[in-house]
């Protein structure tokens, strides 16, 4: 047997049955005319014919269904195709198809006849029960499958793929995928197929969104895998692809992705309005074309616990809400419906406000503006629905922590796909997350408002520096992100026409810091009334802060207790007689001094530790304040700014305070506005004072000898001075006060003794001596001869007291000027 055209001589003739008996396959010798010459036992077993029945008969008749001339002609043509042809055909046995693999494996001559050797091997059969399991798997598999030729035309499609696409099998076969999916989607998929055919590398789990002819109103997600088909010679002969509808999985993944992204995009601030707007901005256009968020008025104001609780009974038919956030893909849509901040009462009919309390989300997949219910109850909105083409709607009540907050509504117009039931779940989850953020912001707003109210109530409402100082102040609470702090200031009138100035900053924010600030301010006023020097006052204040810190940590089980972290403070005392200022600070920024010639400086003071450490002593420093100088106390929030450079901020503050021609109030307001143009997360406080001096015509003093006889002379001199000041009405009481104070100094104290009268906002009488023993007010009995001196002084004066000096003490008494 010699292959045709190989150039070798033919071997000795061999009988056909000798040639075929060695074959284990079903083998036949077929002449060029197509008639069977020889037939193996395997062929007899395969088709059920004996050799006597087939020899001499056309082979095509044996392989084709009887009476099918088209199939006979096709098989005959393939047999004549010669050596190398192979393929799968269905042969018939007992009127049933049997799949076999045919191959023309040789050609040779027997005598003058050209013959072909055709081998057949039955395909692997599966166990069947009425029909082929393999056929059932391929055609009815839940996975859509198709076979494409090298030109990417459909050759075979199973039932599942036909059902996925909604295109009959007859319309697919012989056509390309781009013919069925026009546009970018079809071109993209064909590009993937072309890559597989070119490289031979499969592509698995390629996902894309597509429209289904069976469901034209909803996009589906598909996962597709492409595999090359190769023959026995490893040549690519076509392409097989499998596709699964993964819409449910894709929707679940999209829901999780959106919810996860919403967690980082919604609720970034503790502002109710901004949080509502973040919900609207996030969902347009990802989820909807038009979104509105309406919140109840008490929620926006931060008052109360919300309008209703689920157990609070029925709600009114028209809830009072305000538009808190909205967004749209159409530029004119939001303005045409309502503006942010406007009052609204939108609840989709036929529902009322009880929907907000215990209702489920409203799902209207097809919004019909011709619905009589909408036309009757919402005529204006019905017109907007028609104008902007809103065709699908979801409204979700906003509730969090058993509190009703408002209503969020999602609508589609440009997107032709209506909302599905899965979208309701997504809307509910997004609104739930936003509602929790809104409730957090509402609670924080309420606490912030309470803290601001407490802070302002504890700060001085009216400041007065008498004739010694002209004062002005500015206070700005921190924004909602930082919370109200504990910045405070005060102006305290002291004896001898002196004035105390204080500014402080409590560490921390919120109500606790504001309450602590109030306690410290009260303590400073009490200590200042005792006429303590600045360094001693800060030492006592430091002890108080230590006790407060211990109180906050006494009960570890109290979860509501907030540790008190300390405070900073600066206290100064200005004397208009000497025009000098004594001051000390505890970890606070130094004051600013602007001289009348427009030069500013920051006096170098011992820093001192912040209050609450109790580790170091405080030191006082005395500076001179020329008349009309400006003395400024401030907190770090004023000078830190956005760059957190305190020194730069202090320099800018000094430049701003050097402006001439401005009254103190305007100067103070301009400095704060320029240094803090926008809200910041720290309190801001600025206290300015313009110094004035008491002239020689307002002060009179006398040295008093340690002789009781000198009392009458001093008393007469004081009376004349009071009359000279046009205060004749106070001459008698001044005479009695001077007599008692000077007599006590001569009798019980040591020298030197000095009397001084000051005419300022009040008439002040001061008697200084060299003793550090404080006088004590006594209530003499009816039979006592003495002990009534200080009692008379207390009755005749507006107030009286004592203060210590480095050389002794001063007893003073003030009278109101007529």
TrEMBL record:
SMART domains per the UniProt record, alphabetical: PAS, PP2C_SIG
Protein keywords: Hydrolase
NCBIfam families the UniProt entry points to: sensory_box
Pfam families for the chain: GAF (PF01590), HATPase_c_2 (PF13581), PAS (PF00989), PAS_4 (PF08448), SpoIIE (PF07228)
Domain PAS: 19-68, 130-200
SUPFAM superfamilies: ATPase domain of HSP90 chaperone/DNA topoisomerase II/histidine kinase (SSF55874), GAF domain-like (SSF55781), PP2C-like (SSF81606), PYP-like sensor domain (PAS domain) (SSF55785)
Highest taxon of the lineage: Bacteria
Organism the protein comes from: Streptomyces violaceus (Streptomyces venezuelae)
Entry keyword Hydrolase: yes
Signal peptide: none
Protein name: SpoIIE family protein phosphatase
Hydrolase is among the record's keywords: yes
């Amino acid at each position: 047997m010699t292959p045709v055209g190989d150039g070798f001589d033919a071997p000795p003739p061999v009988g056909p049955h000798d040639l075929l008996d060695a074959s284990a396959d079903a083998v036949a010798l077929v002449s060029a005319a197509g008639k069977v010459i020889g037939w193996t036992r395997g062929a007899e077993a395969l088709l059920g014919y004996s050799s006597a029945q087939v020899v001499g008969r056309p082979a095509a008749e044996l392989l084709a269904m009887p009476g099918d001339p088209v199939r006979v002609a096709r098989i005959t043509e393939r047999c004549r195709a010669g050596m190398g042809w192979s393929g799968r055909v269905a042969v018939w046995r007992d009127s049933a198809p049997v799949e076999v693999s045919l191959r023309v494996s040789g050609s040779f001559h027997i005598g003058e006849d050209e013959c072909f050797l055709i081998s057949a091997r039955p395909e692997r059969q599966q166990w069947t029960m009425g029909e082929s399991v393999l056929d059932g798997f391929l055609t009815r598999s839940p996975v859509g499958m198709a076979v494409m030729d090298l030109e990417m035309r459909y050759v075979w499609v199973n039932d599942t793929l036909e059902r996925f696409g909604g295109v009959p099998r007859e319309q697919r076969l012989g056509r390309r995928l781009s013919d069925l999916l026009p546009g970018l989607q079809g071109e993209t998929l064909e590009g993937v197929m072309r890559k597989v055919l070119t490289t031979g590398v499969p592509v698995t789990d390629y996902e894309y969104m597509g429209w289904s002819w069976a469901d034209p109103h909803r996009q589906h997600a598909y996962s597709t895998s492409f595999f090359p088909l190769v023959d026995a010679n490893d040549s690519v002969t076509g392409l097989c692809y499998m596709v699964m509808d993964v819409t449910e999985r894709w929707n679940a993944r999209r829901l999780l992705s959106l919810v996860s992204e919403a967690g980082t995009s919604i609720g970034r601030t503790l502002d109710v309005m901004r949080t509502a707007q973040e919900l609207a901005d996030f969902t347009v256009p990802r989820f909807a074309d038009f979104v509105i968020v309406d919140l109840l008025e008490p929620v926006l104001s931060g008052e109360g616990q919300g309008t209703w609780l689920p157990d609070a009974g029925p709600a009114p038919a028209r809830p009072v809400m305000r538009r808190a956030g909205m967004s749209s893909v159409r530029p004119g849509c939001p303005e045409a419906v309502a503006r942010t901040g406007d009052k609204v009462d939108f609840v989709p009919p036929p529902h009322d406000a009880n929907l907000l309390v215990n209702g489920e989300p409203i799902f209207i997949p097809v919004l019909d503006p011709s619905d009589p219910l909408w036309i009757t109850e919402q005529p204006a909105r019905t017109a907007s629905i028609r104008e902007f083409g809103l065709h699908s709607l979801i409204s979700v009540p906003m509730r969090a922590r058993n509190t009703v907050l408002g209503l969020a509504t999602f609508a589609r117009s440009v997107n032709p796909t209506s909302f599905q039931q899965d979208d309701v779940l997504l809307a509910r989850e997004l609104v739930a997350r936003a509602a929790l953020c809104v409730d957090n912001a509402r609670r924080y707003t309420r606490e912030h408002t309470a803290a601001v109210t407490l802070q302002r109530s504890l700060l001085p409402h009216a400041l007065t520096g008498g004739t010694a100082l002209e004062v002005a102040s500015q206070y700005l609470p921190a924004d909602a992100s930082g919370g109200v702090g504990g910045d405070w200031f005060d102006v305290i009138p002291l004896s001898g026409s002196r004035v105390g100035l204080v500014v402080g900053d409590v560490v921390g924010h919120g109500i606790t810091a504001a309450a602590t600030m109030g306690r410290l301010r009260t303590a400073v006023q009490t200590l200042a009334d005792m006429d303590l020097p600045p360094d001693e006052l800060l030492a006592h204040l430091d002890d108080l802060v230590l006790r407060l810190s211990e109180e906050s940590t006494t009960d570890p089980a109290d979860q509501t207790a907030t540790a008190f972290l300390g405070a900073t403070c600066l206290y100064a005392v200005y004397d208009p007689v000497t025009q000098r200022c004594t001051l000390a600070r505890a970890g606070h920024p130094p004051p600013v001094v602007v001289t009348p010639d427009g030069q500013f400086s920051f006096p170098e003071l011992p820093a001192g530790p912040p209050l609450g450490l109790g580790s170091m002593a405080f030191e006082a420093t005395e500076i001179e304040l020329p008349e009309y100088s400006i003395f400024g106390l401030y907190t770090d929030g004023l000078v830190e700014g956005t760059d957190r450079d305190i020194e730069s901020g202090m320099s800018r503050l000094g430049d701003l305070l050097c402006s001439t021609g401005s009254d103190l109030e305007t100067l103070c307001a301009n400095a704060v506005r320029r240094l803090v143009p926008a809200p910041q997360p720290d309190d801001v406080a600025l206290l300015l004072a313009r110094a004035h001096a008491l002239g020689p015509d307002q002060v009179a003093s006398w040295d008093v000898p340690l002789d009781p006889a000198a009392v009458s002379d001093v008393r007469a001199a004081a009376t004349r001075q009071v009359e000279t000041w046009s205060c004749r009405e106070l001459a008698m009481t001044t005479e009695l006060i001077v007599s008692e104070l000077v007599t006590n100094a001569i009798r019980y104290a040591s020298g030197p003794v000095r009397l001084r009268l000051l005419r300022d906002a009040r008439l002040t009488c001061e008697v200084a001596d060299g003793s550090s023993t404080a006088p004590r007010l006594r209530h003499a009995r009816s039979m006592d001869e003495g002990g009534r001196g200080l009692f008379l002084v207390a009755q005749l004066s507006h107030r009286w007291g004592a203060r210590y000096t480095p050389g002794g003490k001063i007893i003073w008494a003030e009278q109101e000027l007529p």
